[in-house]
């Protein structure tokens, strides 16, 4: 099943489930062959969409490959004035069906900070109840990019030490001069 057919299945279920898509490209182009089709899903609908994609017999998206967080933030004020987007985090979920051999990426946008309060992590519902592999992927995104996954069974750091401050993949992250007496720069 191609991306358009998957999108159609979702919009038949709920018109509010897909807000944008990356499906209007030439399937024979080199770029298309290296890019998964994607759908943008509202954050508050992501869990329901994921469950539907897994449970719908024609879709059976039973594999979560990864979750990626992208920090859309430009720390340079001159460059920030030229960008055509507001600062935000974008989560990308790459999923596939091992049964039907199709794949898609789901994108959702989060504010960089919850309620625009700096250092208050944005929140999204965990999909670990849908795909067990999300337990590890969500921990990595939490650790490195600072997203709080509500309902995660054990949301804790996975790569950085437990007492590490900040989230290293955020564009405004400042590397500490030292950690436990060891120089880091």
Strand percent estimate = 15-25%
Class inferred from helices and paired strands = alpha/beta
Major pleated sheet: 5 strands, mixed
Oligomer classification:
single chain
**Fraction of residues in helix:** 10-25%
Please tell me the CATH architecture by its name.
Answer: 2-Layer Sandwich
Mean pLDDT: 92
| Assigned CATH class | Alpha Beta
Low-pLDDT sequence parts = none
Question: What does this 3D model show about the protein?
Answer:
The protein has 185 residues and is α/β, with parallel strands linked by helices. The protein has one domain (3-183): NADH:ubiquinone oxidoreductase Nqo5 subunit (Beta Polymerase, domain 2). The protein is built from 5 helices and 9 strands; from the N terminus they run αβαβαβαβββαβββ. The protein has helices at residues 3-13, 30-33, 46-55, 77-80, 134-145, and strands at residues 20-21, 38-40, 63-72, 88-97, 102-110, 123-125, 148-150, 178-179, 182-183. The chain has a 5-stranded mixed β-sheet with strand order 1-2-5-4-3. Strands 6-7 form a two-stranded parallel sheet. The longest helix is centred in the last third of the chain and has 12 residues, at 134-145. The chain is globular. The model has no long low-confidence stretch (mean pLDDT 92).
Short description, anyone?
This protein is of the alpha/beta class and 185 residues long. It has helices at residues 3-13, 30-33, 46-55, 77-80, 134-145, and strands at residues 20-21, 38-40, 63-72, 88-97, 102-110, 123-125, 148-150, 178-179, 182-183.
């Amino acid at each position: 099943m191609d991306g358009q057919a998957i999108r159609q299945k979702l919009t038949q279920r709920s018109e509010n489930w897909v807000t944008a898509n990356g499906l209007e490209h030439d399937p024979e182009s080199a770029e298309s062959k290296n890019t998964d089709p994607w759908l943008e899903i509202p954050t508050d609908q992501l869990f329901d969409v994921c469950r539907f994609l897994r449970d719908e017999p024609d879709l059976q998206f039973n594999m979560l490959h990864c979750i990626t967080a992208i920090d859309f933030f430009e720390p340079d004020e001159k460059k920030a004035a030229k960008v055509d987007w507001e600062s935000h985090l974008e989560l990308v979920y790459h999923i596939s069906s091992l049964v039907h051999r199709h794949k898609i990426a789901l994108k959702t946008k989060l504010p960089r900070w919850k309620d625009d309060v700096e250092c208050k992590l944005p929140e999204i519902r965990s999909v670990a109840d849908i795909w067990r592999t999300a337990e590890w992927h969500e921990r990595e995104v939490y650790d490195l990019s600072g997203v709080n996954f509500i309902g995660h069974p054990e949301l804790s750091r996975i790569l950085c030490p437990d007492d590490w401050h900040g989230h290293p993949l955020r564009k405004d992250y400042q590397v500490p001069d030292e950690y436990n007496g060891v120089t880091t720069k």
